[in-house]
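Progress against Task 2.4 (sequence-to-structure conversion) is shown through the following example record, which the project officer requested during the mid-term review.
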Amino acid sequence: MSGEPTGGGRVVVIGGGLAGISAALACAQAGAEVTLLEARGRLGGAAYSFSRGELTVDNGQHVFLRCCTAYRELVEELGATELVTLQPRLDVPVLAPGGRLGHLRRSGLRAPLHLAASLLRYPYLGIRERLVLAWAMQRLRAVDVDDPANDAVPFGDWLRRHRQSRRAVETIWELIVRPTVNLTVDDASLAQAAQVFQVGLLSDAAAGDIGWAVAPLGEIHDRAARAALERAGVSVHLASTAQALSRVMVAGGPGRGRLSFQIDASDGFSGAADAVVVALPPAQAARLLPANIGLAPDFAERLGASPIINLHVVYDRRVLEHPFATGVDSPVQWIFDRTAGSGLADGQYLAVSLSAADDELHTTAEDLRGRYLPALADLLPAAREATVREFFVTREHSATFRAAPGARAWRPPACTQLPGLILAGAWTDTGWPATMEGAVRSGQTAAREALAAIPSWRRSPHAVVEV
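Structure tokens generated for the chain above:
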């Protein structure tokens, strides 16, 4: 984002997740005076780390793709590029019980032919199933993701209409939809699922290359983010919960005045702003936002929530030879090697990510251990002889909104009906699912709209915003 200081423009950003960080940083770089309020004692929102004994643990496994250009640019702005890695070429090991191994990988051909060789050799489908799968992917390229009619259709219905076998759904479609949309194919919107495939796999051969953090997420989204915000001149208030948000008239000279916002927070912060960016989860935003701003009173309930559970397993030896893998014919979805980033001195630390985990949400840690340790041993033969040193569970009850059929109608745009009051978050209408990329894009959009709401910025001949 570029622009020149206009003088006098004040923006308050409420919420220090990726959307809030992006919005605050962009507004400050453009010359606004920015304050960021975060209720927790750290930044990073839902992508954070915590300490557990000798381990530094990410609350969940967060990945990005090469097509996630906004998130990758943010990481660069934070000075954290050395803390992430990106595959040179998409390669997903697909494990099955008994040690069987397949791969989803791309070749050097252009999209969509870049996946052809991998699909034709895919060991978990018959030849006819592979051919029908390739045909359906071609048809999926033509789906209009902005058509409300497509958003109203369950993706699973579309797959059945396009002759996808149950086996193809289980071994291909679910492997991609579940971790990206955080819903099963039957619960996900066709438009949202199609967006994932079109942007991530079917338009650009390199788009789906997978990236991940090689350091704890807190090093990127908290420590590096705070340093970058400080360099940009943002005043960051941690442990500061916004308690009141109101529209007030501010004196502007004899006989004149202008509308402004008044924000009061739990740490004693009280200030006025020309624009406010509310970058909170839906339920929290609903409690803070004033009425009559163009949102349905029950918008948060209508968006709903979908959980993610992560199982953390520390073995006394190495049992997974890949940085990550996914499973078929198994309750295990995706497995990540978090040994290096966690600080573990010896052995191997694996994180098992379970998306759309409604069934597991209220299952006890003991029962999860009893089910998933044998499942891991089925996929990873080396785990059968290994000793489990530690097993624990982290749960995100409301990890994402539910991108279910019809959900996009309840995803609000950045601008509300109250000028200068802006929304940000992966749940707003970015077109993307609830990912780190969607959060950052929403923050960038919020910054543009916040700057445009500042009177002095609108009058400035230099008020050009580019993101």
